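Two proteins follow. First one:
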Amino acid sequence: MLYLSQQTSLLFGVVKAIVIMTTATALAFLLERWLLPSSGTVLLILAGVIVTALSVPNRIAYGAVVFGAMAFNFLFTEPRGSWHMQDVEEISTMTVFFAIGIVVVYLITRERLQRFSLQDAELRSTILLSLSHDLRSPLTSIIGNLSTFQLYQHKIDKAQQDELIDAAMVESERLHTYLENLFQATRFEHGIVNLSTQSTPLVPLVQRVIERFANQEEISLSIEDSALNGVVEVQTSLFEQALYNLFDNALRYRKDNTPVLCRIGVSASGFWLSITNEVANPLNETPTTWLKPFYSSRRGDQGHGGAGLGLSVAHSIILAHHGRLAFNTDQTSLQVRVDLP
């Protein structure tokens, strides 16, 4: 799948370069009829090279330089319609065009690589910061609870022992969820996704996800009669993870002591599911921002934001199932709606 994606992207780049260079050459050819000097035609073709270099991969852009030089030779030098060149000035003009074209493509490519390197460094920094916080916190809690249990199990009663073990289990589940999201985010980022779907009853699937939460009683489930026997084509484990992330986000960022409302219904194209919660704080970011990998409301080590993977992974999984994820927000509530075929 990744290979096909790369091939498609390369083909699209070639087509785009041909269109740009053909347009620039045609424009130069038309303007030449209005007594545009040869230096003007060269500049128009060079402009096409620059636009191409800004729009496509570098190896295609270098090809655009060759295309431009050949077009100038064939269409604008004497004798017209041949590859022969007789005029010294025209030979010099084409040589200068070729040299400048190569330099321009090189400089644009270098600037692009530097920009990508900076973005990559920023992403690595964000990932490391996320790892340091979102792995350290649950691990510290697990180690602390289990160490306390090991040292004091003979000095504390059964209820306190169970409390320590339960707390360690909750943090273990949190750690597992984070690592699973990190794994899925990496797979989707590199296009390594091969869905193996099967017909799955929707309502039991949602109920299984809700049952994974310790505070499941705070999630209210409402099902339209027409959706009770609904069946969807999904890869069960992946889709459960997407729904888990959506419920987890709603529970994590809701207003204290308010329920999370989940509704399931039938639409014209399939089924829909909505998850609504009252917000603890006004929503300042736009929904599209929340879908960026590793975006978090946490700044540095401050704040309560998560790793910024949950919604991004959920969105990728839903898209892979040909579904749609949408947000409806106001100053008091947030609704996430999933539409499935």
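Second one, unrelated to the first:
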Amino acid sequence: MTGKNSLSLGVFMPNCSNMPSISTHGVVADQWQYPNNERIALLAESLGFDYLFPVSRWRGFGGETNYLGTSLETTTWAAALLRATERIKIFSTVHVPLFHPMVIAKIGATLAHISHDRWGLNVVSGWSQREFEMMGLELDDHGRRYERTSAFVEILRGLWNTAGEPLNHRSDWYSINNGVSLPRPDKMPEIANAGISPDAQAMTARLCDWSFMSGASIEALPRLVDGIKSQAQSQGRQVRTAIFPFLLWGDSEAAAQEELQQIIAHKDGEAARNWLDGISAGSGSFDEFTENMIAASGGGLPLLGTAEMVAEQLRAIHESGVDAVMVTLQDYERDLRRFGAEVLPILRRMGVVRA
């Protein structure tokens, strides 16, 4: 981990098609393919990034782009990238309704074993009914989904506990009888949860290591960060926070703004509405986001301007209490190189990231 005074850097990876914008403008069509993801991972590692974080999707959002409709499954994706890299930490994202926790305990321990404990898990309770209905699954109401996710994480932690006692668990969703899963990770994998609803935050504060969130503005972040951290502290725990900003910079602020307007002008309105309607019905977590904001960045916070301006905004994000940013980019390979040459040196001079 980086020091507590440093901002951790990660990449919100393009393992799904049409990331990060719900638009036909500026999209690199083949970014989702594994060879591209591996090059991006190795580039991020060479620049000193700390994390790679994937999206998990089972069905796209229709429209002209079918946003996120083609995707790489994230446990197998992580296995390959963990072998290709040496230092960077890599998460998998799993939907709780689709996996038994004993299966994920085994998969996770395997990934931790082959990577010397560089693997982490992002648990998603599920929100897109259009995804799950094709599998014949009906999602529980919001509060019940997080009750199930709590049971899921409790089982994982019990199976991964190095004390090694057999696990017994009874809930509405799982029955574990003298459960054992070997090997166990040498260190407890980091567990993240995305969601800013009260149910999500309560579960995260009690059981998770990371709160992966999104705010509609930098000004909104302190309230979100303070809320989850104070909940965790009241239970004698610490939870770190991460957001996924969309970085768009050029020679001038006007050039960056013009590029953003081009993305919005070419938005896939049908896919954006399906995305926004689905997540609003599922959790209400993005009530402050407009359709244009969703189309521009897929729910990430846009950071616009010159390289200096983007660096200043990243400093403000860190000063708000955010511990890590998982950046999204228009052309990941091109823009990661640009970030390393143009933005990262400024952040280092500012003392925002480690030198």
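SUMMARY FIELD: The domain at 8-350 is CATH 3.20.20.30 (TIM Barrel). Residues 142-160 form the longest helix (19 residues).
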